Amino acid sequence: MNEMTAPVQKLTIKDFTSDQEVRWCPGCGDYAILKCMQRTLPELGATRENTVFVSGIGCSSRFPYYMDTYGFHTIHGRAPAVATGVKLANPELDVWMITGDGDGLSIGGNHMMHVLRRDVDINILLFNNKIYGLTKGQYSPTSDPGTRAPSTPQGSIDSPMNPISFALGSGARFAARTVDTALKHMPGVFTRAHGFKGASFVEILQNCIVYNDATWADVTNKAVAKDKQLLLEHGEKMIFGADANKGIRFNAKTFALEVVTVGEDGITEDDILTHDETNLTLARMLAELGAEPSEPMAMGVLYADPAETTYAEAVHAQVNEFKGKRTLKDMIYSGQTWEVS
């Protein structure tokens, strides 16, 4: 009797849902992100045994408990180091790193910078609610000036960090942004991040209903979303607005992006910029868009330009080059060594 190969059964959202009780505050934006991830992985053809979630410390860092995959809940700010180790140990694994604005940009800022500049092939999701949630509402590196919190009772006087600008400045070759409630937009961003060869950095605007509720309301509320969000598509004009008549133009005099209205002051669609996600200079400008009330925030993939070789590939190529050719003693006594007679 010939052996028959059983057809591969497609996994579902249930296959990636663990038996652990989800313990976030009712109304937390993390619930939507979790469900989106559990729904997206089957569409990517992911398997539980080949998927790893690594997190640090914070509300978002409970993520690995709720995914029926492999996972590591590590220590504050050190998730990039552990995720790097996992990827180097087995480059075939799909490694996702979950962090927050406090975990990833404060105590973990140095580790985040290096995992991005090394271009380790992992998918980084940074939940940005502009506050420390787990430790009861202290201000974070992304908090707005004037934020009153237990650690800043008179209001924060710090200048907030821009996560996308930080990532691009650290050498990230993929940077994107989405919103916790954008259940149609978020899966596409996750899919692009997963398919990118190298370190992919995704900022998710996330709401902390207890300590910083509605912090993104001026961008995400349905009443203003079309006017306050610029949905980017590579090769498409940067047009937005409730009437789809606003656009982004490059002002050569100020050397900056500006919002214009098609049909006013002689502006036509030809004046509107076309998004080129491989243009780093443009990506840096788009990352800062939204600082002024009249400007929208750029959503989607701002930058995607993969390198020919990832960090893990380079490391393993170096190991394989010398495998069997040199002993440990040879390596110890090579280079800057000398004998004293």
Can you describe this structure?
It is a single chain. The chain has 341 residues and is of the alpha/beta class. The protein is built from twelve helices and eleven strands. It has helices at residues 30-44, 63-66, 79-89, 101-107, 109-117, 163-169, 186-195, 217-220, 225-228, 280-288, 311-322, 328-332; strands at residues 51-55, 70-73, 94-100, 123-128, 174-179, 200-205, 229-231, 239-240, 246-251, 256-261, 297-304. It starts with 29 loop residues before the first helix and ends in a 9-residue tail after the last helix. The mean pLDDT is 94.
* Rg, alpha carbons: 22 Å
Share of β-strand residues: 15-25%
Q: Architecture of the largest domain in CATH?
A: 3-Layer(aba) Sandwich
Low-confidence stretches: none
Q: Structural class of the secondary structure composition?
A: alpha/beta
Alpha plus pi helix count: 12
Strand elements, count:
11
The order of strands across the largest sheet is: 2-1-3-4-6-5-11-7
* CATH class designation of the largest domain: Alpha Beta
* CATH level-four homologous superfamily name of the largest domain: Thiamin diphosphate (ThDP)-binding fold, Pyr/PP domains
Mean pLDDT across residues: 94
Spatial gap, N to C terminus: 76 Å
The helix content is: 25-40%
Which sequence of SSEs, written as H and E, runs from N to C?
A: HEHEHEHHEHEHEHHEEEEHEHH
The CATH topology label of the largest domain is: Rossmann fold
Could you give a short account of the major beta sheet?
Answer: 8 strands, mixed
> What is the molecular shape?
globular
Count of discrete domains: 2
